[in-house]
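Data availability excerpt. The first of two example chains:
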Amino acid sequence: MASPDLVQQLVEVSLSPPWVFVIVGSLGFSCMSSLATMFREELQPVTHALLDVLAAAGRGMLACSRGSVWCLHRLVYPIKERAIGRYDACDSWMFPYKAKQPGHNIPTFQF
C-alpha cells in the first residue's frame, strides 16, 4: 500500500507547471478529436471554408512578400552600382596603375 506522503508527492508533481500543461493538452486534444469524429459530416463544410480562407490569406501574404522583395531589389541595385563606381573611381585615383585603360601599341578596329 502506498504511503500518504507518496500519494501527496505524486499529486503535487502532476499539478506542477510542466505536467499540468501536458495533462490539460492531452485531455483537450482527446476531447476535440472525439467531437470532430462525432460531428464529421456537419463540420466538413466549415472545415473546407476555413481552409479556403487560410489558403487565400496565405496566397495574399506570399504575393505581398514577393512584391516587397522585387521592389527592394529595384531600389538597392542603383545604390549598390553607384557605391561600387565611387569605390572604383577613388581606387583608380589613389592607385593610377589600377585604372582601366586600353593597352598601348595594341591594334584597334576603326571604320
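And the second chain:
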Amino acid sequence: SMFIFFSIIYLIFDMIFRTDDNRLNVGWWVADIGFQAIFTLEFLMKVTDMSWHYFRTISNVFDFFLVVLGFIGIGLSYLTSGEDAAQASGEARTMRVMRLFRVLRFVRVFRL
C-alpha cells in the first residue's frame, strides 16, 4: 500500500510540474521507468502464480492493459524525445495521449 501512496503522489506531481520545458529531465524518466518496472513485476508474479487463469478476472485484465499502456507510453516518450521542430505537432498530440495513459493509473489505484 505504500507503493500505491507513492504512485499517487508521483502522478499528482507529474500533472502539476511536468511541462514541455522539463519533460526530458532524467528524473521523470527514472520515475516513469521505476513505476513501470514495479507494475510489470507485479504482473509477472501474478501470471507466474495464476498461469492463464490470471486473465479470467476483469481487474487483472485491466492491470495487464495498464502495463501494456505503460510500455507504449514510455516508448512514445522515447521516440518523441528529440528536439526536431518538424515533429512539434505530432509530438504535442502524442504527449496528450501519454498524459491520458498516466491518468488511467489513477483508476488502477482506486480499484485497489
